[in-house]
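Suppose you are handed only these lines of text.
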Amino acid sequence: MSQTVILHHYPNSPYAEKIRQALDFKSIPWVSVEQPRILPRPTLDPLAHGYRRIPVLQIGSDVYCDTALILDELEKRFPEPSFYPCRKGSDKKDVGIIQSLAQWTDRSFFQTSASLIPWELLAKSAPEFVKDRSQYRGREIDPAEATRAKPLMKDHLRVHLKRLEDILSDGREWVADTETPSIGDIHLYMNPWFLTGLNMAPDVYGKEWETYPLIKQWFQRLTQFTKSKRHDDAGSAMSGEEAIEIAKRTEATVQAFADTQNSNDRKPGEVVMVIPDDTGKIPVVGVIVGCDVDQIAIRPHKVSGKGVDTVVHFPRLGYYVLDPPAKM
Ligand SMILES: N[C@@H](CCC(=O)N[C@@H](CS)C(=O)NCC(=O)O)C(=O)O
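From them, the structure of the protein bound to glutathione can be written out as follows.
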């Protein structure tokens, strides 16, 4: 359990920023493997076996895909302080409600934010980025069309921001009205961080978030909090090659597990294909090590003979578990 926490990421990734904040929240020491922001990722591929999205968390030869599962794993391995503190003045927790906030922040809210990316500028300055993200989305990004749609997307952005401002409007310090922040604050922080980082719609939120003063104060409160908790050994750089060597010499920690009632009859030992249901739809094929209602863990090397013999973990929500193609 005392193995090094390795984050594969790049600085501008809002999902990776969520995990960086979460690691600071729990004062976890971690090392950083900076990955290119577009494919190919020759030092991630041998570990994640085709999963292309960022971030990926590696602990030894366990490879965790998707922020939802990464956060669950961090909560298991580092339970204190919990991502789910009690409600103020109560011994009750809002775990399910807080987890569900991610469905809003990561899907509809983030779709709105991402639609404000300056695609026309990028088409000139970084056409390879636009091409890569077209592949990632599974459809061609049309920069001129994206510009035309911006006023509509800004209307949506106003709704998302007003909802957050409304949540904070009764004077609560944190979004789930907890004594200290919860992971819900970090879920909700991701989009404002991304919007301001790329300065994407200052005509909506103001230069310094003046239009949404409660969001502004809360955002500062949260970043001060996580900064104060940051471990001294947070974020030191490691090369991708070194991370691969660590995976090669470490046994995966996961033991075979199965909850057949809740895993659609999938069992350890079966070969399956796991694929995201939204973006970056590259299938990863492997032998099931464990499978339950929340996650599926597979060993891709056992099938392909390629890369490192890692156990790659996926959440169930947001991914399809399918039979692999007959011919491989
Ligand atoms: N559901 C995934 C979404 C991750 C995601 O879309 N990440 C973006 C970066 S912020 C990405 O992978 N973009 C394409 C890429 O970097 O290859 C998660 O929560 O981890």
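What can we learn from it? The two ends are 36 Å apart (CA to CA). Residues 143-168 form the longest helix (26 residues).
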